Amino acid sequence: MLIAITREVSPAIERCELTHLARSPIDVGLARRQHDAYEQCLVEAGCTVRRLPAGDDMPDSVFIEDTSVVFDELAIVTRPGAASRRVETPVVAEALRKFRTIHCIEAPATLDGGDVLVVGRTVFVGRSGRTNDAGIEQMRRMLQPFGYTTCGVDVRGCLHLKSAVTTVGDGRLLLNPEWVQPSDFAAFPVVSVDPTEPFGANALRVGDRLIYSAAFPQTRCRLERCGLNVVTVDVSETAKAEGGVTCCSLVFDQRLL
Ligand code: CIR
């Protein structure tokens, strides 16, 4: 069974962290309705959704992906690169504790889950404005005993590694070649985003389908031409907070400890 942990849209989302986007008004009510519809997609893809609460001290709470990375064998609770986001991790760690043994990234390391892309037993970790070399090194040490290979890769021009590259199924990657070095991913078949849709590289594969933002129709056509079953969601409000579809859930196989 698949579990998807999500988190409420904070009433304070308009005070979110922003790095590459200018601030624009966010409709909190609409953001909540869009988040409900996103969760419904996760249910239709086979997930049991558990939504955690959030307060107005956590503007970015809905972007739960950044707070932890869940593997079959363990969960790694991160130390987010933005100091304002570090209050988000304890409740997520508590929710994960009954499913996985918890390991924690410790200072001075920083690491955001949005910088971690798992493809089989290879774990790519973006060296970004949020994730530093110490974070990559701690992750390598935690994962090595389980047979994972951790590869640090450079990210430029975007927030996280997964703004630039995600898995869309069967080892295939969706990638923006302006924001990551395609040669870092040469071992995998790649679909590139349409050049008019630079933010289109973030897709969430769950079960037999690909959950994808409705804002990128050209890239969606490229994905469908590969035979992928694409389900679109309107995520206009969280996109203004620099979030994509992977950011709003932690999806993993249930294995109770
Ligand atoms: C932030 O800057 O941390 C949030 N406003 C957006 C985080 C998006 N998360 C992600 O891409 N994994």
Give the distance, in angstroms, between the N- and C-terminal Cα atoms. 14 Å
Structural class: alpha/beta
CATH architectural arrangement: 5-stranded Propeller
Helix segment tally: 6
The low-confidence parts are none
Shape, please?
globular
Share of residues in helices:
10-25%
Rg computed from alpha carbons, rounded to a whole number of angstroms = 17 Å
CATH topology: L-arginine/glycine Amidinotransferase, Chain A
Mind telling me the CATH superfamily name? L-arginine/glycine Amidinotransferase, Chain A
Which CATH C-level class is it?
A: Alpha Beta
- Major beta sheet, specifics? 3 strands, mixed
Please trace the helix and strand order, writing H or E for each element. Answer: EHEEEHEEEHEHEEEEEHEHE
Bound molecules: citrulline
Strand content: 25-35%
Number of domains: 1
Count of distinct strands: 15
Output mean pLDDT: 97
Strand order of the largest sheet: 2-1-15
Q: Can you characterise this structure?
A:
By secondary structure, the chain is of the alpha/beta class. The chain contains 6 helices and 15 strands. The chain has helices spanning 28-44, 89-96, 133-143, 161-164, 217-225, 236-240, and strands at 2-7, 47-52, 68-70, 75-77, 102-104, 116-119, 122-127, 149-154, 165-169, 172-175, 190-192, 203-206, 209-213, 230-233, 250-253. The strands form 5 sheets. A 3-stranded mixed β-sheet has the order 2-1-15, with helices on both faces. The structure holds citrulline. The site of citrulline has 19 residues, from helix 4.
